[in-house]
Design brief:
The protein is α+β, with helices and mostly antiparallel strands. It contains two helices and five strands.
């Protein structure tokens, strides 16, 4: 089990990015959350298997139909239970 934090930059707020990310993550069996940041980016905190996380990161570069992603900054995160919603992927 690994955990990552992705900061997605571009036209990613107001286009259904968080909800679409949650659907994709759930389909991949990933736990975590997606939330809007004040600076216009979306933060995605995700925990799962390495292949599922790699697939999610590939998807983040595309996002939903009306999104335009210019950057996905990726860093490892501590996979502690208190930072994840167990068994679900949420939007905040």
């Amino acid at each position: 089990m690994q955990a990552i934090r992705c900061l997605v930059t571009g036209r990613v707020q107001g286009v259904g990015f968080r909800a679409a990310t949650a659907r994709r993550a759930r389909g991949l069996g990933i736990e975590g959350h997606a939330r809007n940041l004040e600076d216009g980016r979306v933060e995605v905190l995700a925990r799962g298997g390495s292949e599922a996380l790699a697939e999610l990161v590939r998807w983040l570069w595309q996002g939903p139909a009306f999104a335009h992603v210019s950057e996905v900054a990726l860093e490892e995160a501590a996979p502690t239970d208190d930072t994840f919603t167990v068994g679900a992927f949420t939007t905040e």
